């Protein structure tokens, strides 16, 4: 998908992650009447003035730009909820709070296109920024712990798309390096077969590979 | 295994390895200043890995431990791995170590490389995601090629994220569009 030079470590750009986030559903309140829209990805509408309906974010933004609707901010974007999440994030070092997978992108899109629909936008914006910073610091801390464990794996639950995307190139490379240096082929064979082993590394039973693979898949989850 | 066309792999194989000739060899000219084209058994020479490897297969030479894996380096890496300047010792420290370990029969090489990488990994992790947009740190001059790749991967993803967050023109105007039409007569 993303055109990078090294295909094994492809990373999405911020714009691409944002594009994927635009498929999330939001609630809008139209101010005009319109027939249902029959799209490949589903049918949306019909639209009646002052009747709330669910549409994907991209459609909501398109209508908002034309002044045809107001967007209702999602429930998790309330000040009470965000304050609670921020406190919980600060309290526990290990666990991540459950937030929508695309919370960074959704909030940033809403701030940009529908600032007048979000009550207390400055407060909400700074809360989300704080949450993101705290969470990213926790990601770094947990990545530190994974090389202390002998399993070379780390369990990080409830990461969001943007956070995964941020650490993906680094973690992918680091896991590959750990796998390479920890693999059993570095223990030489006593009976002079070492030369052949050097070439046959691809056939070595991959003892540790499963752990690496699981960790890697966890991080690549859903992208 | 590394890609055949991987330039890093090719350069890595240029690393010199000290070898001892087990047999006398006729008709080779390793040292241009030598008087004869004859290498005695037991003479010590430094050869690039790709050549030493082939000769090792034919049991003509016996490999010795290269300088970058000597006892002193191991002690230094054990003491404070993150502060050792591996770049000047061997740019391809880990890859070279992996390749040469079975040839010199070093059983501890794998765990040694792993523990060295572990301590240094922590240092890179701490610096890489934070020091974005600052001058290249001193750390970078110590890192091997592989560690530099790791560092740069983290830096570039942080930079890309910041760029996305700050935003900018979402659609760039193609350069041909803005141009005025030339009068053609």
Automatic annotation (TrEMBL), chain A:
Domain GINS subunit: residue ranges: 76-171
Origin: domain of life: Eukaryota
Ranges for domain DNA replication complex GINS protein PSF2 N-terminal: 15-71
Coiled coil (residue ranges): none
CC annotations in GO: GINS complex
InterPro entries recorded: GINS_A (IPR021151), GINS_bundle-like_dom_sf (IPR036224), GINS_Psf2 (IPR007257), PSF2_N (IPR056784)
Gene3D superfamilies in UniProt: 1.20.58.1020, 3.40.5.50
Family: Belongs to the GINS2/PSF2 family.
Name of the featured protein: DNA replication complex GINS protein PSF2
TrEMBL record, chain B:
Primary location class: nucleus
Gene3D superfamilies registered for this protein in UniProt: 1.20.58.2050
Subcellular location: Nucleus
GO cellular component entries: GINS complex
UniProt-listed GO biological process terms: mitotic DNA replication initiation
Keyword ATP-binding: no
Highest rank taxon of the organism: Eukaryota
Family per similarity comment: Belongs to the GINS3/PSF3 family.
PANTHER family: DNA REPLICATION COMPLEX GINS PROTEIN PSF3 (PTHR22768:SF0)
Name of this chain's protein: Uncharacterized protein
Organism: Malus domestica
């Amino acid at each position: 998908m993303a055109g990078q030079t090294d295909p094994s470590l492809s990373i999405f750009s911020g714009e691409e992650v944002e594009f994927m986030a635009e498929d999330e559903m939001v609630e809008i309140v139209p101010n005009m009447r319109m027939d249902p829209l029959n799209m490949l990805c589903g049918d949306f509408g019909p639209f009646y003035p002052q009747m709330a309906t669910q549409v994907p974010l991209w459609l909501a933004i398109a209508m908002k730009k034309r002044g045809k609707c107001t967007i209702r901010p999602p429930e998790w974007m309330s000040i009470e909820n965000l304050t609670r999440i921020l406190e919980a994030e600060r309290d526990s070092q290990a666990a991540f709070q459950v937030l929508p997978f695309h919370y960074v992108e959704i909030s940033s899109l809403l701030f940009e296109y529908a600032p007048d629909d979000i009550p207390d936008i400055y407060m909400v914006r700074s809360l989300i920024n704080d949450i993101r910073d705290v969470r990213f610091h926790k990601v770094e801390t947990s990545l530190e712990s994974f090389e202390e464990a002998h399993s070379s794996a780390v369990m990080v639950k409830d990461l969001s798309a943007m956070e995964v995307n941020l650490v993906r190139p680094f973690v992918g490379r680091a896991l590959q390096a750990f796998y390479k240096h920890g693999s059993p082929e570095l223990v030489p064979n006593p009976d002079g077969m070492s030369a052949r082993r050097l070439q046959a590394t691809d056939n070595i039973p991959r003892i540790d590979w499963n752990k690496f693979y699981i960790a890697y898949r966890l991080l690549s989850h859903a992208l | 295994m590394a890609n055949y066309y991987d330039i890093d792999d090719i350069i890595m194989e240029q690393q010199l390895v000290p070898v001892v000739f087990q047999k006398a060899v006729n008709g080779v000219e390793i040292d241009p200043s030598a008087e004869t084209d004859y290498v005695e058994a037991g003479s010590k020479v430094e050869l690039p890995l790709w050549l030493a490897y082939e000769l090792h297969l034919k049991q003509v030479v016996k490999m010795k431990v290269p300088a970058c894996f000597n006892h002193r380096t191991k002690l230094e890496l054990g003491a404070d791995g993150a502060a050792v300047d591996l770049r000047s010792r061997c740019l391809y420290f880990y890859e070279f170590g992996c390749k040469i370990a079975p040839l010199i029969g070093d059983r501890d090489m794998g765990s040694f490389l792993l523990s060295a990488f572990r301590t240094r990994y922590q240092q890179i992790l701490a610096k890489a995601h934070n020091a974005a947009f600052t001058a290249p740190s001193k750390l970078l001059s110590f890192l091997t090629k592989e560690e530099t790749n790791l560092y740069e991967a983290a830096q570039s993803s942080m930079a890309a994220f910041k760029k996305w967050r700050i935003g900018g023109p979402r659609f760039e105007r193609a350069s041909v569009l803005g141009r005025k039409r030339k009068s053609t007569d």
